Amino acid sequence: MKALQILSGADVAVVDLPIPQPGPGEVRVRIDAVTICTQWDLHLRHNSPMFPGHQFHYPYTVGQPGHEGSGVVDAVGANVAELKEGDRVSLWRDPGHDVQGCFAQYVVRETSEVIQVPEGLSPVATAPVELAMCVACSIMQMDSMHAIDGKRIAVAGLGPAGLIAIQMLKAEGAAHITGIDPVEKRREIAIQLGADVTYSPEEAAAAIPLRNAAILDSAIDCVGAERSVQFLMDRVADTISIFGVLRCEVKFGVPHYIGLRLCGYPPHNRPAAEYAVQLMTDGKLDLMPVISHVMPMAAYREAIDMLERQEATKVCLLPWMD
Questions:
Q1: Distance of CA 252 to CAs 230, 231, 249, 260, Å?
Q2: Does 92 share its domain with 196?
Q3: Measured between alpha carbons, how far is residue 204 from residues 166, 201, 209 in Å?
Q4: What is the pLDDT of residues 267-310, one digit of tens each?
Q5: CATH number, domain at 108?
Q6: Residues 311, 258 share a domain
Q7: Closest Cα to residue 3, out of 140, 100, 135, 142?
Q8: Are residues 111 and 137 in the same domain?
Q9: Tens digit of pLDDT for each residue in 153-173?
Q10: Residues 224, 145 within the same domain
Q11: 116 is a domain residue
Q12: pTM of this prediction?
C-alpha cells in the first residue's frame, strides 16, 4: 500500500508498505479520504511544539499526523461483532502519533476508535468527523452550563473548528451568532452556515462593547491566542469556552471575576463523536463547506503550502488518487 511519511520539516515521501492485518478486536479500514489537521501539520513542518513540553521526532511515524480519515471496513479481526466488512466508517479518535496514521491507503484500528457514518454522505464529507468530535466536546460542555440556548454567542476564529462550532451552536438554539476572523472568505462561509454577523478583529473591536455594556452572553475561542481570549474576556458577560490550543497565560482580573466563567477543554469522548454524527444524519451539520480543496495524497506538500498562505481552509487528501 501507499503511505505518506514526513522525513523532516517539508521533506515528505510516499512509501510502499505491506497492507496491515487486523488483530483481535480490530478492523482494517480502507481510507478513501483524509483531511489535514492544520494545527498538527503546520507545527510539524516547522518543528514547533504543539504545546509546552511537546517535542517532535523525525522521521515521523508513517501516515501521521493523519487522524481525520473516512472509508470502508474491508477486513475484520477476531472477536468483532459490532462492525462488518462494507460498513462506512470514520475514525473518531486519534490513538496517538506512535502508530501508523491515516495518510495511507489502509489503517488498522480498534473497534472502539471507529464510528459508523451515514451511507448517503461521501468519504470527503465524513473525513473530518474527528474534528467535529473535538468541537462537540466544547459545545456539549457549554450546553451543560446553559450557555447556548437563547444566548448571544461569539465564535472567535472561523477556520474549520469555528465553522463547525457555528453549526452546532445553531443546532442547540443560539439566539444570535457573531463570527470573528481576519479572512474575508471565511467570514462569508460563516454567514452561509448560520452566523448572523461577522467582523474582522479590527471591526469587532469597534462594534462589540466591553463587559459593562455586554451584548455577548457566551463565546467559544477557536484561535488559542492570548489576544483573542483576552478580547473575549473583556466583552463576554457569562461563559467563554477555550477550544483553541492556548500556549500562554491570559490575565483574569478585576474586570472579569464577577460573573465570567472560563471553560478549559474537556477530554475527547465517544458520546461527542456520536453527537456530531447524529447532527450530520439530521442535516444540521455539513462538513463539506469546511473543506476548500480536494487533492491526491501525494500533493501533501502543496496542500501545506496553501494552508500556510491562507489560500485553503481545510484540505482533503485522497490516498487512491494519482
A1: 8, 12, 9, 10
A2: no
A3: 17, 5, 9
A4: 999 999 999 999 999 999 999 999 999 999 999 999 999 999 98
A5: 3.90.180.10
A6: no
A7: 100
A8: no
A9: 999 999 999 999 999 999 999
A10: yes
A11: yes
A12: 0.96
